[in-house]
Amino acid sequence: MDTLGVVATALWAMLPAYVPNNAAVLAGGGRPIDGGRTMGDSRLLGDGKTWRGTAAGTLAGTLVALGLNAAGPAVSELVGHSLPSFPLLAGVGLALGAMLGDIGASFLKRRSGRKRGAAFPGLDQLDFVVGALACAFVLAPVWFGTTFTLPVLVVVVVATPVLHVVTNGIAYLLGLKNEPW
Predict the structure, then answer these.
(1) Is 91:16 a contact under the CB 8 Å cutoff?
(2) How many CA atoms lie less than 13 Å away from 3 in the CB half-sphere?
(3) If you count DSSP H runs as helices and E runs as strands, how many of each does the chain have, helices first?
(4) Over the range 129-150, which residues count as b (16 or more CB within 10 Å of their CB) and which as e?
(5) Which of 122, 131, 115, 126 has the alpha carbon at shortest distance from 45?
(6) At how many degrees (to 10) do helices 3-18 and 20-27 cross?
(7) 139 has which bridge partners?
(8) First to last CA, the chain
(9) Residue 65 and residue 136: Cα distance in Å, rounded?
(10) Mean per-residue pLDDT for 132-150?
(11) Confidence band (pLDDT; 50, 70, 90) for 149?
(12) The whole model's pTM is what?
């Protein structure tokens, strides 16, 4: 596979994981997952991790995967490379895994004494990637193995932090986020 094909595959395959956290912010609010519980002197997760946001994010990412299936043939022709389609369990795995990765990062942030919105370089940019890849591997192992080759994984790990910083910076400048990370 050529370089353009690897990059196109990586970004295409991760789109269902890139969308959920943004959708969760838009649909968030409601009952916190941790129910206000604490561990030591800090919340387990905090008010930012809600059931509604998690459900909305997972649904949004899954719908993105289904939409990509419909757009796949035309986009594949446009980029000159066959892009992967998403079995339902792969789409759900990427979307739900992205949410679970973000929830896990929130737990780690609280344990390290960081408050909601505080920066945690590295973790902030890759938490959802680890969750998405792990969940997709569990729910759709054959699809995962054929889609996420080593070169594709390398592009995901390198490109995602760059995309994360750029998109969060734009959201901050537009007043959609309180912090630029």
Answers:
(1) yes
(2) 0
(3) 7, 2
(4) bbbbbbbbbebbeebbeebbee
(5) 115
(6) 20
(7) none
(8) 33
(9) 12
(10) 97
(11) very high
(12) 0.88
Residue 115 makes CB contacts below 8 A (sequence gap 6+) with none
Side-chain-side CA neighbours of 22 within 13 Å: the count stands at: 15
Q: Amino acid identity, residue 181? A: W
Q: Give CA–CA dist 117/149, Å, rounded.
A: 33
Strands 38-39 and 42-43, by their bridges, are antiparallel
Q: Residue type for 2, please? A: D
Q: Whose structure tokens read 């390198």?
A: 158
For residue 171, give the amino acid letter. Answer: A
Residue labelled with tokens 């991790």 = 49
Strands (E), 48-180: none
CA angle 119–130–88, rounded 5-degree value: 130
The pLDDT tens digits for 25-55 are: 888 778 998 888 888 888 888 888 899 999 9
